[in-house]
């Protein structure tokens, strides 16, 4: 499991083309998390990346480009991780537990990224906003389909489908807000607890 | 119920001494929600309040004073509302349902305030931070005590107390992030759904 996590953490930014771009994305992520997107400056981002302000523009046109890229990478990563986790599960309940475990532990493990992806959506221009919204809807549908399948089979109780999907995702998204590594729980424990609570909720 | 809600909404800011202070707090809340605390300026806040920048300083020493006051009012209000709702309930399960219904619907109803209180804690200086943290801990203990009481009586199943309390609060806190009035659900529905999901989770 440790190997898997380490691999995924590296993978998150590994497909970004150059080392400088990767450094800028991570610097921008820290700046957005610390001060909020609006208050973060290109100068601050370049300083955190150990580069000159002019060097930023070689790689990204603006801090909005950096935010868009961070949002895309974050949303794609959590969706891919949830899909991976569901693969090989034999029942709707098994796939729901795998989704929740992956989704919640991802948000704790990548708490800074999870906070920025959850809260800076408002800053995106309409085209980029639509792209991210589509990734979110795909993630929601992935979970909703299993709730529906479980209910149809009579294995799960689902009253309000949309509300229940939102509630399940809230457990994960909010973990990125409160999670701190020193609090004595690890991201995997949070994922397992949430999976257990969700299955109890649906039975 | 409608009367109760209208009364509580008015009450939220009613004890603030002057009409100008109330206007400034609401203007600051909007500015912090739109741009984040760091990016919001005193000039922007005064413009939203329809006052001169100098007039702000008659009432508040800084935008940090405005944030501290907003944080205190928000945290005290949701705690008071949860306590009120629990009063008169005869069992731990009843009090938990009442707490969850009040806590989640409050966060949807006051979504802007809920977002700012959840995410701008980092901006507070240590003394103010400690004051708000104590209000949060009191709220957590209020819920935790009922989970423990229900478990002791053998009426509720509680595995990981701290993790379960956090998960229940996450449902409410995250409602402030995603809730939009036009989405066709009202805050009270969200509260009732979450109360139902939580009781299922604990049985």
Automatic annotation (TrEMBL), chains A, B:
- Which superkingdom is the protein from? Bacteria
DNA-binding region, as residue ranges, is located at 41-60
SUPFAM superfamilies documented for this protein: Homeodomain-like, Tetracyclin repressor-like, C-terminal domain
Q: Where is the HTH tetR-type domain?
A: 18-78
Quick check: keyword Lyase in the entry? no
What Pfam family is a match, any one? TetR_N
Q: What are the entry keywords?
A: DNA-binding
Q: What residue range is the signal peptide?
A: none
Recorded GO MF terms: DNA-binding transcription factor activity; transcription cis-regulatory region binding
The protein depicted here goes by the name AcrR family transcriptional regulator
- In its UniProt entry, the species of origin is given as Conexibacter arvalis
């Amino acid at each position: 499991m440790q190997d898997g996590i380490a691999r995924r953490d590296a993978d998150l930014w590994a497909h970004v083309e150059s080392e400088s771009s990767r450094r800028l994305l991570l610097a921008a992520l820290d700046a957005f998390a610390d001060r909020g997107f609006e208050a973060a400056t290109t100068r601050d981002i370049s300083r955190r990346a150990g580069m000159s302000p002019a060097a930023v523009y070689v790689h990204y046109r603006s801090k909005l480009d950096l935010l868009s890229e961070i949002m895309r990478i974050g949303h794609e990563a959590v969706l891919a991780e949830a899909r991976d986790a569901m693969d090989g599960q034999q029942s709707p309940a098994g796939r729901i537990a795998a989704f929740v475990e992956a989704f919640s532990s991802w948000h704790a493990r990548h708490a800074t990224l999870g906070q920025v992806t959850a809260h800076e959506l408002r800053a995106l221009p309409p085209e980029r906003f639509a792209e991210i919204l589509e990734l979110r809807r795909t993630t929601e549908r992935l979970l909703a389909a299993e709730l529906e399948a479980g209910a149809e089979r009579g294995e799960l109780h689902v009253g309000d489908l949309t509300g229940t999907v939102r509630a399940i995702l809230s457990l994960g998204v909010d973990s990125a807000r409160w999670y701190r590594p020193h609090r004595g729980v690890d991201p995997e424990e949070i994922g397992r607890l949430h999976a257990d609570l969700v299955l109890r909720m649906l039975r």
